[in-house]
Amino acid sequence: FLEAFESLLRSAENRTSSLFETAYRPVAKEAAAPVKELFTDISLYILGAETTVESAVLRFFDGLFPLVYSQLINPGITELSEDYTECLRLMRQDINPFGHYSKNMDTELSKYLWASRMLSQALSLGIEVINTTEHAALAKECSKALVKMQYCPHCQGLTLIRPCVGYCLNVMRGCLASVSELDAHWREYISTLEHLTNEKAASHDLEVAVMGIQNSINEAILHAQLNGPQISATVDKVCGQPRKQEADLSSDNIVPVKEVTEAQTFVMTHTSLNNKRREFTSYMKRSRIFYASIAERLCDGDLVMRDSSACWNGEDVV
């Protein structure tokens, strides 16, 4: 399930990288690192890292602004010092060169990634619980009961006799009494997982938001280019004027990039996520009684005698 979502993120990252390589080639090479960092931060957020979508988006646009300003708004700049670059980073949020597009991207992603983050954390908790109970130590009385059930018939030369079903269930339930107490909590946990999965699958808005990152960035850059003169005037007042050469900065040179839908890729990814959701939901429903039915699972198959044949009841063969 989470692998399918990671695939969605990789697809969105590739689309965003392609945007810079095709439409904003002057900044493509330097923009590769901020793009990579953005999607890494999103992935870490989903996995439960101490970060937020807002901080990831802010960091991305803070890093993008110096590139857009020096290469697209003012392509005549010949030198951009570290101090000047830092000034552009620091003032980016104040002058808001990308308009409402950066904020909208943050809002959309924060809204739809929350359920994914909660689901990821819930799955990690479930794995931790299962691993803990899997390695639970057996009480001394339990060990004795298991030995008696499995090997005492051998002392009488009855090596082919297996325990009776009822006897096996009594022994296993006694051994697993503490584990079976998790049943109510486990059922509640499974219900929570189902709720989070349904929240995540309520619509394909999550996929739209993630796959729409490219278009949000494109609109943000276009907004900055179209408002280049005003942005430059503000930057000059705060950061000073960098060294530049003559260049044609008219808006006629701005070529908007049409929104790329890549419908086929999106449909395939969305279908994959839907299939994973259905598989995951089905698996969760089957595991709802996991802790309540451990004894029955253990006393199944070759461990016990299920037909009318003779079996060991703990005292004798019946």
TrEMBL record:
| Keywords from the named record | Cell membrane, Glycoprotein, GPI-anchor, Heparan sulfate, Lipoprotein, Membrane, Proteoglycan, Signal
Q: Which residues form the signal peptide?
A: none
Pfam family membership, one = Glypican
GO biological process entries: cell migration; positive regulation of canonical Wnt signaling pathway; regulation of protein localization to membrane
Q: Which InterPro entries match?
A: Glypican, Glypican_CS
Recorded topology in the membrane: Lipid-anchor; GPI-anchor
GO CC annotation: cell surface; extracellular region; plasma membrane; side of membrane
Keyword Cell membrane listed? The answer is yes
Give the UniProt subcellular location, in the record's own words. Answer: Cell membrane
Q: Does the keyword Signal apply?
A: yes
Q: Membrane-spanning regions, if any?
A: none
Q: What does this protein do?
A: Cell surface proteoglycan.
Question: In which family does this protein belong, per the annotation?
Answer: Belongs to the glypican family.
Question: Could you identify this protein by its name?
Answer: GPC5 protein
- Corresponding gene? Gpc5_1
